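Key idea: predict the complex, not the pieces.
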Amino acid sequence: MVKAEERVEHNSESAVFDLTSYLKQRKSLVEEALDRSLPVSKPEKIYEAMRYSLLAGGKRLRPILCLATCELAGGTIAMAMPTACALEMIHTMSLIHDDLPAMDNDDYRRGKLTNHKVYGEDIAILAGDGLLAYAFEYVAAATQNVPPQQVVKVLARLGRTVSAAGLVGGQVLDLESEGKTDIAAETLTLIHTLKTGALLETAVVSGAILAGAGAEDVAKLSRYAQKIGLAFQIVDDILDITATKEELGKTAGKDLEAQKVTYPSLWGIEESKAQAQELVDGAIAELESYGELAEPLRAIAQYIVSRKN
Amino acid sequence: MVKAEERVEHNSESAVFDLTSYLKQRKSLVEEALDRSLPVSKPEKIYEAMRYSLLAGGKRLRPILCLATCELAGGTIAMAMPTACALEMIHTMSLIHDDLPAMDNDDYRRGKLTNHKVYGEDIAILAGDGLLAYAFEYVAAATQNVPPQQVVKVLARLGRTVSAAGLVGGQVLDLESEGKTDIAAETLTLIHTLKTGALLETAVVSGAILAGAGAEDVAKLSRYAQKIGLAFQIVDDILDITATKEELGKTAGKDLEAQKVTYPSLWGIEESKAQAQELVDGAIAELESYGELAEPLRAIAQYIVSRKN
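Result:
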């Protein structure tokens, strides 16, 4: 764990770095790129369904992280933008499929009706499939000024992140744990690592790979990502209890109602908060060697524990 | 259309080339590679569901075509095998999702219960997602001795083939045409081009790209593939009427029962057979410059019209 003095120092650095403006500007860049990435074509219905969920807002944290690490490692925003968009396509696909009646059966997402409630189950399944496939096409076809072996590396990681060794495996474990009240913290962490952490880690690492980062930097950034990924999930569990539906843009208190095992249910809210803070401090410690260049990544880590939705 | 004398000549060449042994040997190579490509890991259930459909047999025509064009263009079987496996993962994924209750609602496929009938809808959706993602990972991570820019090209094509510009778009048009009895031949062909033709074309073309084939060869092989792809679909429609359930390994007469517009319903059986033969002759004509090297591709084209299932 990072010592208190260091934390204060980072906090004061973060105060200098204007994260709100940074996130707003980056989010706007990403939204524009996403809009351009998927123009409507025939058959219109499926493109509209894909765009409905892809352009439904959200924090765009994965693309923003990808762009940030690409810059940190000496690359440009342009080099990483197709991958940044692909990360959001993959994330959106996982939300569309998770919300289906055969899965979590959710009616609302980000304050809007879920994809299958608007377009029907058949189109929602296909919209997810289409987004997933297009994510790979887009990275392979639209990435420019990056050596092709680095593009291949990123595509391999993206694939692994969605596969049974990542998102899909995590969702299976999550479905299996439903209704069980004896889930251990280790199992909960494994589910979240696969379902949420893996994609965050790939977001962070792929930006660095595109910029040509070496193994040591990739390893440091991986550890940073693993820590903020888990902190993110702990905070999500806390917010499900403490935030309102308006703040979340989705049904609050859902975990409690479903008697789902969460970090607060295992550790209590205070201890969960402390664990999240410790992870974020650890994540920030991984960035020490980068100096000011890593300011966005430090501020994002702090934001993850302080966010209200 | 190719003249009758030429057709006879090709037929006699095919008699010299032992297609049955060739397909048997290649199918066995592909089956072994598929089995090795996806070992069971945790969570076992999802790997078992993926393997259940991936290893359920079938003609393995797409991987066999990919290996054949890679060899034709001067490459090796080893260079193309990961892509060959990926093509079958993608094909399998599209079958699993098409069979879902929200889509075509099929109980049997290749004489076995469909994936969701065995594992449930949730796992079937995830097994499809997992196979799709893994297909890209496998090509990116397992392809060896191929320049990375060629691997990137293949990945871009694979993505496009599944996306809303390919399989997914075709399935949407297919769902939209359900119950309609006024579908024109052009619409029917567009649906099949997207749903079936695109993946066959990618199978053929990706083998050549991996081997480093130039634009002219890729164009010739694309036309070959488009023609056999459409012929394949016409023959499928004919077999749905003329073959038995035992021959097909799936419900026969389904199109008639669903009052689906098919080539035989538009053109009659005899004209449909003639059109399929004309396409196959045209496909074979594209291969003229390759001499004996293209013998497998010629024999496969002939097989497509003469097959019984």
